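hey so i finaly got around to running the thing on Cytochrome P450 from Tolypothrix tenuis PCC 7101. pasting the sequence first so u can double check i didnt mess up the copy paste, my clipboard has been acting weird all day
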Amino acid sequence: MKPAQLPPGKSGLPILGETLNFVADPYSFVKKRYQQYGSIFKTNILGRPTVVMVGPEAIEFVLSSHMECFSWREGWPENFKVLLGESLFLQDGEEHRKNRRLMMPALHGPALVNYVATMEDITRVYLKKWKAQQEFTWFYEFKQLTFDIASQLLLGTSNGSESARLSQLFTNLTNGLFTINPLPLPFTTFGKALAARNQILEHLTQVIKQRQQNPTKDAISLLIQSKDEDGNSMSERELIAQAVLLLFAGHETTTSMLTWLCLELARHPEVKERAVKEQMQLASKGALSLEQLGQMPYLEQVLLEIERLHSPVGGGFRGVIKDFEFKGFHVPAGWQLLYSIYVTHSLEEIYPQPEVFDPDRFSPQRQENRQYPFSLIGFGGGPRICIGIAFAKMEMKIIAAHLLRSYDWEILPHQSLATVRVPTNQPKDGLRVRFQPR
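ok and heres what it spat out for the 3d tokens, dont ask me to read them lol
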């Protein structure tokens, strides 16, 4: 019996491996090798031998059918563990299942119903501000808006200047997640990220102490009160770690998707026109409501196409904790695994002309994402699909509905809209627009 063979690929330079190529442009790095080797190949990046997997079949293997071979905690670079703490994001097995069950009620079902009015109120404040400003950079504005929504609904805090300070701290923290050389010196990107993390933890400790004494209707109050089947609740340390994750995940990715949504609508007037028409028909029946949010099939198609073409996150890391075989290749425990969202979303056999922005891919007639499970994975998939998916989708719909019902915008000249993928996917100059009421 011949010994199982490692996947094809190269290890690159000693120590560095192919890290520099990978960090310079993760998408091209994976795409080129996928074209050369197929859906599984090896490399050496971020100091570890790594297997990269691409395509729905490979993604299903990692996220669903063979999850037991992989660990989240062992997969993400050290920076993530230091900066994002022991949150749900880095937990495995029973610990993850238990905490996920405790957190679910704060982000789904009846809790969401209570969030609609606040999401709308905060959105209206920003619309008024943008109307007065007329010209601004949308990425930074969305970052503030989504952060305000996250801090008010998830933490119950609503102080404007405090919210702006925290939002900036999270920007510093995010920048530290992908530094190749994490030196903890005060003037380095990683040092600034650590300082930001400490200030965030300090703030959250205060908030949690207040909520323990006076619970309100926000997600953290629900978490403080929730108990598992044995009657145990989360410790203060756990609550703080989950709060960091909720705030981080609750605004970074939504900001990215909203920015690309407004950019693509401005670039494609015919798509915007259809989306406006759908909203005007709903508006003629009354104000925006939870019920109306479920009656926007075209806006849903547009958002799915944004998720496909401009996924906020490019992929995910795992640690291989159990040897496995895929397509006849053997991968040993101890390796790192990277699965690529970007490249999976751009496979021509699933999405013809993948570089074209085309919301009709998701129309009832075409449903290109339904040919194979795990071919649209901007929010992950399987048992560990993003816990905030319903919260994020509702928030994006509310903001988009208000924009489409009452406003117009155009892209200002002399700016770069090239895609920058790290730390989160955004147009290079942040999308400067001219904004006016319709």
